[in-house]
Fold 2-methylfumaryl-CoA hydratase.
Amino acid sequence: MSKTNPGNFFEDFQVGQVIEHATPRTVTEGDRAAYGSLYPTRFALPSSAAFAASVGLEQHPVEELIGFHIAFGKTVPDVSLNAVANLGYAECRFHQPVVPGDTLSTRSEVIGLKQNSNGRSGVVYVRSTATNQRGEVVIDWARWVMVHKRVSTGSGPLRSDPEGTAAPETVIPELAKAVDAKNLIVPKGLDFSSYDFTAAGEPHRLADYEVGEKIDHVDGVTLTASEHQQATRLWQNTAKVHFNVEARPDGRNLVYGGHIISLARALSFNGLANAQLVAAINAGAHTSPAFAGDTVYAWSEVLDRTVLDSGETDAAGVGALRLRLVATKGRDESMTLRGEDGKYAPGVLLDLDYWTLIPA
Amino acid sequence: MSKTNPGNFFEDFQVGQVIEHATPRTVTEGDRAAYGSLYPTRFALPSSAAFAASVGLEQHPVEELIGFHIAFGKTVPDVSLNAVANLGYAECRFHQPVVPGDTLSTRSEVIGLKQNSNGRSGVVYVRSTATNQRGEVVIDWARWVMVHKRVSTGSGPLRSDPEGTAAPETVIPELAKAVDAKNLIVPKGLDFSSYDFTAAGEPHRLADYEVGEKIDHVDGVTLTASEHQQATRLWQNTAKVHFNVEARPDGRNLVYGGHIISLARALSFNGLANAQLVAAINAGAHTSPAFAGDTVYAWSEVLDRTVLDSGETDAAGVGALRLRLVATKGRDESMTLRGEDGKYAPGVLLDLDYWTLIPA
Amino acid sequence: MSKTNPGNFFEDFQVGQVIEHATPRTVTEGDRAAYGSLYPTRFALPSSAAFAASVGLEQHPVEELIGFHIAFGKTVPDVSLNAVANLGYAECRFHQPVVPGDTLSTRSEVIGLKQNSNGRSGVVYVRSTATNQRGEVVIDWARWVMVHKRVSTGSGPLRSDPEGTAAPETVIPELAKAVDAKNLIVPKGLDFSSYDFTAAGEPHRLADYEVGEKIDHVDGVTLTASEHQQATRLWQNTAKVHFNVEARPDGRNLVYGGHIISLARALSFNGLANAQLVAAINAGAHTSPAFAGDTVYAWSEVLDRTVLDSGETDAAGVGALRLRLVATKGRDESMTLRGEDGKYAPGVLLDLDYWTLIPA
């Protein structure tokens, strides 16, 4: 029907195009509780208003991933409703904490296009920016997805291209492998100089983590059908494969990748309790699908660490810890990311590279 | 035991009787988040405090159906705990938006009675009114249910009537087929004259909908056991068949009809994104039971449309769109309501006739 | 790995030791909604801000069990992560209502130790105290758990004790069988003298309950996998057996005992609607495990009743009703707690002894 939104196909995107995504969304204390019922999160800062105040924050932020999932969800109807695959993220920065009462809106600009040689799909690169009700940037990130061409939908052989749409000029944006530590943004007022390690749950500060160190987060959580759907709905993410068993040949709902990110981040508390805030996401790959019944574990690898210069950032005692967060189906105490063939080991669900803020 | 509430039976009702229902209930931001985790709702007005302010509302309302489910739930222990079937609704009007902090209470008056010829049950008609903490009417509606007689409970043959209760005089109230558009109530201050169609997600305004037009809302959602139970509990609805597998011979929990209404309304966003508020429910029939595992789709038919006279209603740019909202088990792209025999088509779960407010 | 928390073993506890538990937690309106979606609670006071104000409370408390579960959950990583069994509670008092915005922290003192004769485990007694952001005591309680010795973990034969740890001196604290009614704390301002029995849902006041009276709460709720996990996570309770099917040989997640307490308390509304507040927990035993698919019912027995002296407690019209709350798997209309052998009847899941506040 003409009034419903079929989503965009590869042919619908042009480099430079700006899309204002629908459905501004106000974050509330209800989201904090819902998040806490879905993920076993125990980071003291988003858990406790008193703790947040004790580290200099005027208001009580929700977890950064709440903001990220909401901001990301807005882009789905326009960018990835007809996606074959979500290929990657880059240059995601959290510009300021999201607090209850904030209303988030998202805008995307198409920054790259590359039609696949099969002529049936192509890669779309977008840079998305979430702003709050004051028009301030809250989160921005780049993302690239493989999107069907309109003519190629369906599973049959390639149909003729009725409009004879030519492939667009290939434009591949330059994206940083990782956000440079000097570009990380420390929330206004954040001061870890009188940080309460007992309340936070662990004694480890920045200097206690060695680059190359791996941490097995030990705990596992078994996925259920309704939990991942509740999460995905909460972020107003409309991708059909998460909600509708009739939308997939195997009759199983695919768990939203962001659900695995949040679950792994929550599990990482055990060993990384002081990595209180997420400052940036450098890269992320959803390497394998997850389903209800799978039991998810996580391990982390320390990739980098640095003390943030308080002169520039106005932060006191704040360090940045760059981590690889790996979610696995079934526990892998060997913490093996890739097999000998260089491919991801079979149980790996998520490989996320991100920056956290931690007492220096 | 004498201290527990067995619910009322048909013999317990008299025309003119007023029942003050128990359990006043305060609505919170937690309810908004819970609703958003249970239904894929994306209407901009209840989603965004900023959007609500931009259309002239002083506070940020929750979805009208949150208020309706709560107000309705209060009547269950007194009116329909021993119901055989929920037969219909009529004349439901939303008098003012419900905002977090509002406390809802419900009162019902018995407006009709008709004993069935089998002598084992009868139809009870009630008019229910929900008020807030200031005593203002928030929602009112009429409803009729078939209720067991006390003597006829159980599945065996008709037992003798020990009290020899005579059938009451039959009183059938006159109820309007639909709320007249001129009786619709527009929330104070609502002003669609500078409505942001981009933020709302679709460009269609009142004039873009033709009477008789049908809209297939495309998306489907598979029901899970815990989600409908969580919803039903949230509204403090106590009907046993929704929670207790031992209360039904087939060992399956029946999905609360209101869950299907909310789900279908949320799905209708895709094609009706600007039908921001529910102003009235004219009629509703739950035509078939739904269970966990069913995948629910929805389609709508435009029944009527009218521009509301701003002189009378103090509304600017507000139109009213009357819709039939049909939920189906499995997608029916043919959008067939009834078979050749005039009966509802097999997959139809819900046939709801309601008024929405939309930019004129 | 050295950075993760393996929990304490029996050898790690000494009498007099004080443990400051991690993760302060702010209670919000989101918790009230989440609780309402998980339990069929209808007590008017926590349901309605207007009702709470009408009985003299300045703010709108959440259910006492929300505070209890949160405060209790904080102790799990330090006290009972390696527990064989949760043996009992005693002397739990609710010192003041918890309201949204309160941040709870918990501290425990070890008050007793007794190594088991098998040398593989021992009983640890702790007294735990939850305080709010102003340092005021909110809840305190004693609890004893059987905890593995480090050397005995695993299911194989007893391994040698490498450190040759001797059994500690046995110290068994004296704990009251029940909190004395004169030590119950009535919330500041609570005044039941103009209590609205209609809004509360039942007419029964203190004097209507006879010691020895039993009440069958009639209704049953079937447990689902995701609901008990959502609850347990909400309280940041980290016990693995509730979340991870791989953590148990039978591949089934054990339902958190506190979930059964909250469910039974909610079911007890039907017959005890005016027992609005929980003032103390005298004792509690989780007598049998519960799993998804079980249908839970509840019955109560009146153990004691007393009018609280308003001179001492500043309470008007407040009575205290001491109840035994029994949760069962499957309905037991005979309300049999124990078999002829003195052991708990097979279907009994929970035997809880607690004090409530009710209009006198």
Remarks:
- The two ends of chain B are 57 Å apart (CA to CA).
- The first strand of chain B starts at residue 18 and ends at 20.
- The CA atoms of residues 190 and 315 of chain B lie 6 Å apart.
